[in-house]
Amino acid sequence: MALEVLAALVIGGIIFIIFMVHVTGRWVKRDDPDTGTALIEFNRVYPGEAIRSVVNTTDGRAHFYRLHGGKTGFLQEMGHHSVARLIEAGSIHVGPMDDARALKIDFREAGFPGGVYHFESEQDAAEVSLWLCGTFAMAAHEEEPPRT
User: Fold this and answer.
1) Please, are residues 18 and 36 in contact by the beta-carbon 8 Å criterion?
2) Other C-beta atoms within 10 Å of 119: how many?
3) 119 and 58 in contact (C-beta within 8 Å)?
4) Is the pTM of this model over 0.85?
């Protein structure tokens, strides 16, 4: 009899803890992307890069940055950590999706995941793709031999 009472108390305690975590809001998913924290994190990794514009994905876990000089930056939240990087020409492959508000981006670096990134609007997806194209055009221009 005492074993059943102990088991009931343990199960009741676990249910109470789960209920309290839920009630206190620890499981509430944020609907707004935290652009400020993402800006600070990217600036901490690349302090010399001037950010001109930011586009977030709909889930707020990835941020694309238009940087001074035609460069493109990227910050993605992965669990409790963030990965920030400058996107270099030839380091990614961008493909269209059926949904005009999404881009499929594959990073060619080993160990760095790519994926499908969904944006709030078609304009945001188009803007990010233009930033990426601008990065490639800038790199192609740098490789051209000087004209005489």
Assistant:
1) no
2) 23
3) yes
4) no
